[in-house]
Amino acid sequence: MTDVQFPTTPFADRFWTAPDGLALHARDYSAASGPARAPVICIHGLTRNARDFEDLAPRLAAGRQSGGARRVLAVDVRGRGGSAWDPDPSHYAPPVYAGDILALMDALAIARAVFIGTSMGGLITMVVSALRPAAVAAAVLNDVGPELAAEGLARIGGYVGGGPPITDWDAAAAYAERLNRTAFPAYGADDWRAFARRIFTEQDGRPALDYDPGISQAFKKPDPKPGEEPPPPPDLWPLFKGLAKAPLLTIRGGASDLLSPDIAGRMREAAPDMAYAEVADVGHAPMLDEPEALAAIDALLKAAP
């Protein structure tokens, strides 16, 4: 485990080694002074990276409105951001990702943490809870559940791993808007420029999407043989119910196409003690800087260890 502190930023770049030897990265935000609290581990969605939490993480580390300051680790899941790309794309799967998170916790001697998982990050959180239940002190599922709506999966599968060549940052902002304007209808030009800086990195003087195109392999399933039904998706409801034994909050984008109202309703029935919040007029997935999301997260953290 190594870390490099950059004085112009509020975090340290921390690196650790996955169980299979891959080099992984996280942003480590130190907690402000105050009583020790369980740290927070933030896990992003499929094509995103730790920069998704660049507004939320400093807020939680400072303890503003959240009942106390907490150390925050915003991870780059393997194949994204500052983490290495995996030479075997079949490793881009939640069980492997969960093992990476547990390796981070072991390297830093973190026995338990509060997890905030956006989309894929929420699925990883469920697997972490199944592998090591005591590791999850509390959890936030951001616009994800134990079932995923077909409409949202089809939309994501239509763009992951591809995209036109991007020549400059204006084109990167236009690309970000084209893919996400339905989810964030209130965003303006400055918002899309900031969004582009989160999902692109600069390579050879040009913006490039900051993930390994190999992560798209999970969406490339072979066609079933004639007369053969495709295999059903894995049943994640037992993992969700196990996660719900800890304090749990689900946040849904009011216009989400991945976490449908029906799925969210069944989650609330299956876990009646789960806190729930919706972010109006936002699709998949809320950025967690919205007032509704922040209020719900603050309430959970005030009650969490």
What does this structure look like?
The structure is a single chain. The chain has helices spanning 56-62, 94-107, 120-131, 150-157, 169-180, 189-199, 237-243, 261-270, 291-303, and strands spanning 2-5, 12-17, 23-29, 40-43, 72-76, 113-118, 136-142, 200-203, 206-209, 248-253, 275-279. With 305 residues, it is an alpha/beta fold. It has a single domain, classed as Rossmann fold (3-Layer(aba) Sandwich), CATH 3.40.50. Helix 3 links the parallel strand 6 and strand 7. The chain is globular and about 55 Å long. It starts with a strand and ends with a helix. 44% of the residues are buried. The model is unreliable at 1-8 (pLDDT under 50).
Characterize this entry briefly.
The protein is an alpha/beta fold and 305 residues long. Helix content is 31%, strand content 19%. A 9-stranded mixed beta sheet has the order 1-2-3-5-4-6-7-10-11, sandwiched between helices. Strands 8-9 form a two-stranded antiparallel ribbon.
Essential attributes:
disordered N terminus, alpha/beta, nine-stranded mixed beta sheet, 305 residues, two-stranded antiparallel ribbon, single chain, Rossmann fold
What is the level 1 CATH name?
Alpha Beta
Architecture, according to CATH?
3-Layer(aba) Sandwich
- Share of residues in helices: 25-40%
Q: Give the mean pLDDT.
A: 93
Question: SSE string, helix = H, strand = E?
Answer: EEEEHEHEHEHHHEEHEHEH
Strand order of the largest sheet: 1-2-3-5-4-6-7-10-11
Largest sheet composition: 9 strands, mixed
How much beta, percentage-wise? 15-25%
